[in-house]
Design goal:
The chain is of the alpha/beta class and about 220 residues long. The protein has eleven helices and eight strands. It starts with a strand and ends in an 8-residue tail after the last helix.
Length: about 220
């Protein structure tokens, strides 16, 4: 892991950027339009991150994280994401996103994002941790009580890359399987509302019918 791209210069995006910089990643941060518009934000909120265009961030990054309001996913250009690993860190919030789109009602919001970004290798994670906890909760590998984060995606190699990033940032990654499994850590779920170590998160995923710890 050398370069992380982040689309979104809000609290979530800049929080992840700071932690990625802390562990030695290069960080490219982008928002819609001219990167000069967010250059000062990047300088203040994530010193060391470079403000670029969305296309530049995706093209140069090993992994790109989507940290924009969910309703803006449809404004993203699918062509620039094709073949790239994309982490969906977004959640649906009715107050800002409006009603849940019809295409998400039948599945998960990440499946909706993946359908729009056809060709991208979409993974769901980082949505069930608060931006302020990105700095307060990391622990070294094998530390007792290390917080765990679930990872869901249809591309096994993309899941593995996301899990390596999670571990690098100071959390225990837990493979939840296919992208549809992201439904069990969306807002309103036990996992979203809680804080779990690896064993606790595995137990929650098993209760939700996503993984079988006995296998």
């Amino acid at each position: 892991m050398t370069t992380l791209g982040i689309l979104g210069a809000g609290r979530v995006g800049t929080a992840i950027a700071r932690e990625a910089l802390r562990v030695g990643c290069d960080v490219l941060i982008a928002a819609s339009g001219d990167p000069n518009r967010i250059a000062l934000i990047a300088e203040v909120m994530a010193p060391g991150a470079k403000a670029v265009t969305a296309a530049e961030a995706v093209a140069s990054a090993d992994i790109t994280i989507l940290a924009v309001p969910l309703h803006r996913h449809s404004t993203l250009d699918p062509q620039i994401f094709a073949g790239h690993i994309v982490i969906d860190a977004m959640n649906h919030w009715a107050d800002t996103d409006g009603p849940l789109p019809a295409e998400a009602v039948a599945g998960t919001t990440s499946e909706m994002v993946a359908a729009h970004l056809a060709g991208a290798r979409v993974v769901k994670t980082f949505n069930h941790i608060g931006y302020h906890e990105m700095a307060s909760d990391p622990l070294p590998a094998n530390a007792p009580g290390r917080r765990a984060l679930a990872v869901a995606g249809d591309d096994a190699a993309a899941r593995e890359a996301a899990m390596e990033l999670i571990d690098l940032l100071g959390f225990d990654p837990v493979d939840a399987g296919p992208l549809v499994a992201g439904a069990v850590f969306e807002p309103g779920t036990e996992i979203f509302n809680g804080r779990f170590d690896r064993a606790g998160l595995m137990a929650q995923l098993e209760l939700a019918g996503v993984v079988d710890t006995a296998s």
